[in-house]
Amino acid sequence: MVSRRGFLAGLAGAALIPSALRPPAAQASAPAAPFLLDAGETTLTLPGCRNPTTLWTYGGSWPAEIRLKRGEMAHLLLRNHLKDHTAIHWHGLRIPNAMDGVPYVTQQPVKNGEEFLYSFAPPDPGTFFFHPHCNTVEALGRGLAGAIIIEDPREDGLFDLDRTLVVKDWRVAGDGSYLSFMTDRGAARAGTFGTRRSINGATAPQIIAPCGARVRLRLLNVDVSRIMTLGAAGAEVSIIATDGNACPPFAITDWRLGPAMRVDLALVMPSKPGAQVEIQDTWGQEPFPLAHLVAEGAVIAPDRRPLALPKAELPVADLKSAETFTLSLQAGVSDPALDAWLKQNRFGDDALCRAERLFWAINNKAWPAMDMDKRPPPLAELKSGRSYVGEIVNHTQHPHPIHLHGHTFQVIASSKGPARGHWADTVLVAPDERVRIAFVAGEPGDWMLHCHIIEHQETGMMGYIRVV
Questions:
Q1: pTM for this model (two decimals)
Q2: Segments forming the whole domain that contains residue 29
Q3: Which of 24, 44, 108, 246 is close enough to 309 for a disulfide, judged by CB 3.0 to 4.6 Å?
Q4: End residue of a domain, out of 253, 281, 296
Q5: How far apart are CA 253 and CA 266, in angstroms?
Q6: With 0-12 CB in 10 A as exposed, 13-18 as middle and 19+ as buried, what is 272?
Q7: pLDDT tens across 380-438, in order?
Q8: CATH code for position 205
Q9: 211 Cβ contact list (under 8 Å, min separation 6)
């Protein structure tokens, strides 16, 4: 039997961050050294393709992964080598509004050849990701996204293996060339789905783990459309964090993971060498494998601690004093004057942030309204530090994963059944469902709120909440 301490010592120093995203070697010990995020092109042969596909990436690797320490100031330098302007939104992180990465709202776009330095101290541990927030359907379609892991000393030694699984579909033909990233039919319905499924840019990985090892899998859905239903075979698998935030463990079975949502999974490997565990998307006629884990070697000494994370430390809303506001998700709401204006103003730098079609709205308002200087009024105006309940009502025939920037909320009620009260930054709202979320309004600023089926976002289902 191998001691757990001995096994963990063998993992010490393993490179978990792509070298392109580390601070420069000569400055590795200097806290102020920036992580370099070069947005540019690289090639990768995707599953089922004969030829390589040209991807947009950060640092020349896909998926990019950054690991930071909770509460420590980090500096991340975006250098844009792409033909289009860009920016980086840090999805799920509660950071200053000026660092939120929304062109024309929180910052000016970063043009070709320009740089932008993001500086923040992430307050919460967990699994998050980053991506652009303009021309998102193409940028994400070409792969411009990465995982950002915020580590917490309280979690040291809880798991023997910690692996990241980034799930994404690609709209490519068999020769590796891209198909249309968006279609009117898809945008007006459930989204335009990819033709090749991948995990970390390849087929489901095989992960070798010692018998009896405690394993943590960080599963991120960075796809633009796909909603997965999770399952597992070969072992009991629990969800221990939702959208990066610790929760009381519950079984993985039938958990729905929409675009931009994440879960951390925990399991103990079987004690028999050769035994396998499979993580699956069970939606459809046959389960789709997301990861294969294989037990090998001597059994690690058992650890009797629960498979759980330290409790999330987040501001809890006072439901007794909370004010309520409503967000109505709607289809088919369009303004003829806005439609005509969009057709006549399809060019220029800010045209990347506009759609040519409008199929969706929130509270009877479609985004954008005219140009970036004439955006619609906020969906709600809140006061920093006060408690609020948002009631999200889906009046459409399709589910919508609704994401609120800069805040982490609790899902406290659903018209479809009991709510877990889990923490999230993105909540999947089913057709005809009413979901109630509770949170404390954060830093002053304009914080975007939108559907993360990206075609819905880019054809109207986006707005913002103003905190004053």
A1: 0.91
A2: 4-152
A3: 246
A4: 296
A5: 13
A6: exposed
A7: 999 999 999 999 999 999 999 999 999 999 999 999 999 999 999 999 999 999 999 99
A8: 2.60.40.420
A9: 269, 270, 271, 272, 273, 275, 295, 296, 297, 298, 299, 300
